[in-house]
Specification:
This protein is mainly α and about 210 residues long. The protein has helices at about 5-20, 25-30, 40-50, 60-75, 80-95, 105-120, 130-145, 150-170, 195-210. It has a single domain (about 5-210), classed as DhaL domain (Serine Threonine Protein Phosphatase 5, Tetratricopeptide repeat, Alpha Horseshoe). It contains nine helices and no strands. Helix 1 crosses helix 9 (about 195-210), helix 3 (about 40-50) packs across helix 4 and helix 8 (about 150-170) runs antiparallel to helix 9 (about 195-210). The longest helix has 20 residues, at about 5-20.
Length: about 210
């Protein structure tokens, strides 16, 4: 196991959790336009519990950390978000089983695994006006930048910009999944809360987290 890689992963999860807690109201306000209005609260409940239990989590490597995160989120986040986010972290952790010191290729593989898990769990895909409409383009951009020789920080900044642009673009989409789908054409008048949430998290990671091993 790489101590540096595990430290990076811990700081990554903590950065995401902190951002979720800071943006609880914003995420809920976005969701309230055509949804239940509980997206921010639900995420904060899960990530808040994760931070609360942080010192008692039992893991030995990056894969184990992601899997433990998945368990907490699945058990604490309500509604459809729990299975979605739990599955994402579980699939990412499973993809990292054989990567004690994950490199850029491992990171992309983990993100792709998370995306596939979300697709299957949510019966959704690109264009359905969900978090995937931000997550997939951002992951594509991250991979493109890393393969092109960009450093981790530079690649994350570019991916965050793509995530924001893609999230904003969901405003013109018709929702096909979740409570927003019941609002029909009215769903075209607002951005998807999940997609914008992904954009905000990418932005937080790109500004607050500096990996040492990727």
């Amino acid at each position: 196991m790489s101590d540096a890689a595990l430290s990076d992963a811990e700081r990554l999860i903590r950065t995401i959790a902190d951002s979720v807690l800071e943006n609880e109201k914003y995420f809920s306000d976005l969701d309230a336009v055509v949804g239940d209005g509980d997206f921010g609260y639900s995420l904060a409940r899960g990530f808040g519990k994760l931070i609360e239990d942080w010192d008692t989590l039992d893991y030995e490597d990056v894969s184990g950390l992601f899997k433990k995160t998945a368990i907490v989120l699945s058990s604490r986040i309500g509604g459809t978000s729990g299975p979605i986010w739990g599955t994402a972290f579980l699939r990412a952790g499973t993809a990292l089983n054989d990567a004690p010191a994950p490199g850029s290729d491992d990171v992309i593989a983990a993100m792709r695994a998370a995306i596939e898990g979300i697709k299957q769990r949510g019966d959704s895909d690109l264009g359905d006006k969900t978090l995937l409409d931000s997550l997939i383009p951002a992951t594509d951009r991250l991979e493109q930048e890393l393969q092109g020789g960009a450093g981790a920080s530079e690649a994350l900044t570019a991916a965050a910009a793509t995530a924001r642009e893609s999230a904003e673009a969901t405003k013109t989409m018709l929702a096909k999944r979740g409570r927003a789908a019941y609002s029909g054409d009215r769903s075209r008048d607002s951005v998807d809360a999940g997609a914008m949430g992904v954009a905000v998290l990418f932005e937080s990671v790109s500004t607050e987290w500096s990996p040492t091993t990727v």
